[in-house]
Amino acid sequence: MPQKQKLKSWSDLKQAGNERFKTGQYGEATTLYSQAIKELDKSSKKNPEDLGILYSNRAASYLKDGNCAECVKDCNMSLELFPFNVKSLLRRAAAYEALERYRQAYIDYKTALQIDCNIAAAHDGTNRMTKALTEADGPSWREKLPPIPTVPLSVKEKLAQQNAAKATQPNPTPQPNPTPQPNPTPQQNGTKQTNKSAPSDKDRKKGQALKDEGNALVKKGEHKKAIEKYTQSLKLNPTEVTTYTNRALCYLSVKQYKDTVRDCDEALMIDGSNVKALYRRAQARKELKDVKACVQDLNSLLKVEPKNTAALKLLQEVQKK
To answer: Which residues of 75-88 are buried (b: 16+ CB within 10 A; e: fewer)?
Structure first.
């Protein structure tokens, strides 16, 4: 019988680990990833990013085996070597959640959303953590959070370039343990998601100035003019959630309810637990006689803020009808 070939290179060991992972042999996958880490560590050509991915893959195996403490350690190592790696952030968030360390999990989910606002798993995780933290710490739970790291623009641009490169490949090779693909969250009601590229600093500043002009017009009650300013602002910075919710408020005021719903959909793609977007969409749906969807939005909102008086009042109104 031919002798079984011994795996020597770290890339062979990694590939073997990936194969074991796919078939649910997580213990064996962990062993192979550990061997790959040792081999790559010894190599004179070691790349921090490659090493970071190996730690992230081993973290995924630990997570599947329920070893959440080791998963967190490996994700910490991975993120030191490969900062803002989305897979490591999501794996650490899941481990923190299982360990009931909800604040840390919330931070990781929100950081992942800064990098890619279309990750359904991060939106869902944020919603779960918001609910858990509200139950644990009350309405002021956000005050007890550690600071959320600011993701550099260069990281977002690099991800956008990688995604563009993948899109041009006719048959991309499937990767093990992929980051969950974006699917509409319940709040998004099946709305098609769009990838919005991060604006330049110059566009962000111009967008902010136009948004401020819109806010000033709202205070004067000039909602149609404010809509124009917010629209110009969003052309420059389509990732600013409050511009969508502000324009939604203006659309409500001028009775353009379908436009209100559309802007709230956009806002909820960026922040799945945005209270203003949920409330304003509920108001618009009430006017559009879509009672079922209105109640759904209000229930989603009350999971985030159970004592929100405006939502409770509107829910009571709609249910009476």
So the answer is: bebbbebbbbbbbb
Domain covering 186-320 in this structure, CATH number: 1.25.40.10
Q: CA 191 to CA 187: how far, in whole Å?
A: 9
How far the first Cα of the chain sits from its last, in Å, is 79
The whole-angstrom separation of Cα 143 and Cα 123 is 20
Q: What tokens appear for 248 in the block? A: 């939604």
pTM over 0.70, yes/no: no
Amino acid occupying residue 90: L
3-state helix, strand, coil in the chain (%, to 5): 70, 0, 30
Range 213-222 burial, b when 16+ CB lie within 10 A, else e: bbeebbeeee
Give me the residue spans of the domains in the chain.
10-156, 186-320
pLDDT in tens, 136-181: 888 889 888 888 888 888 877 777 776 666 554 444 333 444 333 3
Cα–Cα distance measured from residue 296 to residue 123, given in angstroms and rounded to the nearest whole number: 17
Topology (CATH) of 10-156: 1.25.40
Longest Cα–Cα distance in the chain: 86
Tokens encoding 154: 């260069």
The Cα 267–Cα 281 span in angstroms is 10
Which tokens in the block code for residue 109?
Answer: 């989910």
In this chain, the answer to whether the domains covering 10-156 and 186-320 adopt an identical fold is: yes
Three-state SS at 220? coil
- The answer on pLDDT for 187 being more than 60 is no
Contact by Cβ (8 Å): 248, 242: no
Q: Is 90 exposed, middle or buried (0-12, 13-18, 19+ CB in 10 A)?
A: buried
